[in-house]
Amino acid sequence: MITDIAGLREVRRPLTMDEGLGERASAVVHAMLEDWKLLDLIKAVDVAVSELMQWIDGHGAPDRMNLTITWDQTLLFVELHDRGGLVPEPHVSRVDAELATRLLAPPAVEWGADLDSRGRHLWVAFTVPSTALDAVPPIERRGML
Question: Is the whole-model pTM more than 0.90?
Answer without folding.
Answer: no
